[in-house]
Amino acid sequence: MTTFVLVHGASSDHRYWSRVAPLLAAAGHAVVTPDLPVGDPAAGFDEYVGAVAAAVGDRGPVVLVGQSLGAFTVPLVAERVPTTLLVLLAPMVPAPAESVGAWWDATGHRAAVEAYAAELGLDPARFDPVNDPATMFFHDLPTDLVAELEAEGAPAQAGTIFGVPYPLTRWPDVPTRVVAARDDRMFPLPFVRRLASQRLGVEAEVVPGGHLVALGHPQEVATTLLRLAGEVGHG
């Protein structure tokens, strides 16, 4: 049995994994879906990592999965929790010592998003996660799910985590895989592929779906996680 620890991204919580977690559990595995203190303006990476480590407890070794901004948290968790595999899903692929705030310009994110918008024939101004979340995040989701997400609202995200120094000094000595979402408008596929290669020396796996891929395509995400865990001999 594998213990999967599924870590959400910014402005999110454990509900992001609500469609993937049951599939992993049905396959006979343990699943932990911690909530990060995203709304706490006093919380930095110590608090983010602490929340995950506390949820894991004495389980281990584990497979750590970080979605979006969660990709910054999971390599730090791997320094405290015995880990057999790191998976970065639709991720901000981090680099040691590079803060979340510095990441956007350092990676050329805006140019990548504008190029993808042009490829789709859409106005790049609409690729705005704050002012137009429907275009950025909901474009490939079923209408009933979109209605549910809009009714629930997203957890507030404190800005502190974007400005604090990133304490990772070197990538942990743990097998790492990157899984990109084919239709992701937040982190377009060519962009994630480039960062996976340049920063981690790995080729990104690709699954269908947009940035909220675990909600829109849970079966594909679960199947990929199970296969990757099996490939490292843990699951």
Q: What do you see in this structure?
A:
- The protein is α/β, with parallel strands linked by helices and 235 residues long.
- The chain has one domain (3-231): Alpha/Beta hydrolase fold, catalytic domain (Rossmann fold, 3-Layer(aba) Sandwich).
- 40% of the residues lie in helices and 13% in strands.
- It contains 11 helices and 6 strands.
- The chain has helices at residues 21-26, 45-56, 70-77, 100-107, 109-120, 133-137, 143-152, 160-163, 189-200, 213-216, 218-231, and strands at 3-7, 30-32, 62-67, 83-89, 176-181, 205-207.
- It has a 6-stranded parallel β-sheet with strand order 2-1-3-4-5-6, with helices on both faces.
- α2 (45-56) packs across α3 (70-77).
- The longest helix is centred in the C-terminal third of the chain and has 14 residues, at 218-231.
- It is globular and about 50 Å long.
- The relative contact order is 0.18.
Strand order in space, largest sheet: 2-1-3-4-5-6
Radius of gyration: 17 Å
Cα distance, first to last residue?
6 Å
The overall pLDDT average reads: 95
Number of helices: 11
- What is the highest CATH level, the class? Alpha Beta
| Percent helix range | 40-55%
Low-confidence stretches: none
- Give the second-level CATH assignment, the architecture: 3-Layer(aba) Sandwich
Element-level helix/strand string: EHEHEHEHHHHHEHEHH
What form results from the Cα inertia axes? globular
CATH superfamily: Alpha/Beta hydrolase fold, catalytic domain
Overall tally of domains: 1
- Strand percent estimate: 5-15%
CATH fold type:
Rossmann fold
